[in-house]
Write a structure and sequence with these properties.
Elements: H1 4-21, H2 27-47, H3 52-66, H4 68-89
Length: 93
């Protein structure tokens, strides 16, 4: 399995370069937001619903790499996305 951190870093660099070459204003911010959305989706695809222990390990790795605020934001956003997905799958959307 590909190292998620490595693939996320590559994605961010490529997305940022495309945006900058295209003359997109706020390219850095937009690329970071895009990366965050992609990371949420990737964490959900890799770890949920049956690999919560592996997700916890990933969040710990994020905290060591990017700090507690980044890990907390990612954790909270993944939980919100998972809750929304469960809501939609139950036919509540």
């Amino acid at each position: 399995m590909t190292d998620l951190f490595e693939s996320m870093t590559e994605h961010h660099a490529e997305r940022l370069a495309i945006m900058q070459e295209s003359g997109v204003e706020n390219a850095e911010q937009l690329a970071a937001e895009d990366l965050h959305r992609c990371e949420i989706n990737d964490v959900m695809l890799r770890y949920y619903p049956k690999k919560g222990d592996k997700a916890a390990e990933y969040f710990d790795k994020v905290e060591k790499s990017r700090g507690k605020p980044a890990a907390d934001r990612l954790r909270d956003d993944v939980r919100a996305a998972w809750k929304q997905r469960r809501f939609e799958e139950a036919g509540q959307a």
